[in-house]
Amino acid sequence: MEILETLDIKDNPPASLALGTFDGLHLGHRAVLEAALGSEYSPQVFTFKKSPSGDPALMTPEDKAAAFESMGIERVYSMDFAELRDMKAERFAADILLGRLNAKRLCCGGDFRFGRGAAGDTELLLRMCEASGTQLIVVPPVLDGGGKVSSTRIRKAVAEGDISTANRLLGRAFGFSLEVIHGNHIGRGLGTPTINQALPEDLALPRFGVYAAWCRTDSGRYYGVCNIGVKPTVGSDRVLAETWMPEFTGDLYGQRVRVELVDFIRPEKKFSSLDELKEEIKRNAKTAKAMTAG
Questions:
Q1: Fewest CB within 10 A of the end CB: N or C in the chain?
Q2: What is the mean pLDDT of residues 67-87?
């Protein structure tokens, strides 16, 4: 799969182009992407590096790219919103989508907006597609519990620690694939060696606390107990995910490990001693094992 950050191209094949921010690749986003697949045209995506709204992302760029590729997308245009924000809607559709990107099939949600001041909508896009002989597929919203599946709902659930709801709306587990970094090694001294991962500033942060999790390493999948926060007992100057995998042995420093949150166990709190912290970690690990057993 190609990832392009420029529109200065000369050889784009006829494309079936999915349009959207795709900041979480939730069930609604996947419906748009699936609509772009299965035609005679090259399945491609036009998106932005960061959400124009400025909201935090629900997955890292690396995880998003891997998800696009796993679905069968052949090319992704990942653009800087500032470079296109002042382009009029008609010009954007004609020059970029139907012109440079050679779109023969466009797929988007009903709330898709484009162009300066978000003036362009699906009605304008339909008129321009009909005039050029391009197929437009407007994908209806995916509903859950009577409401639309949206990144806003998912971010709220993540922020509240309601991971089960977030995972249901995403259609996958909320998580992150990040490099394992060195910490203060206190966990190792307690007999509960953890992996430390620094969460990116632009990633939606879960409620600080302890979660049951699945961890995927090169050697397999392991259940874990994951603390997300600033480690109030021992202190941290940044937000970390600190995860203990009771059934794993080995060195993961410098490697990328995927941590997928399953359910919330308890809020983050400060303990009066390391011994008290150690016993709590072991209790939380038992809870995590039960939560991941189902």
A1: C
A2: 94
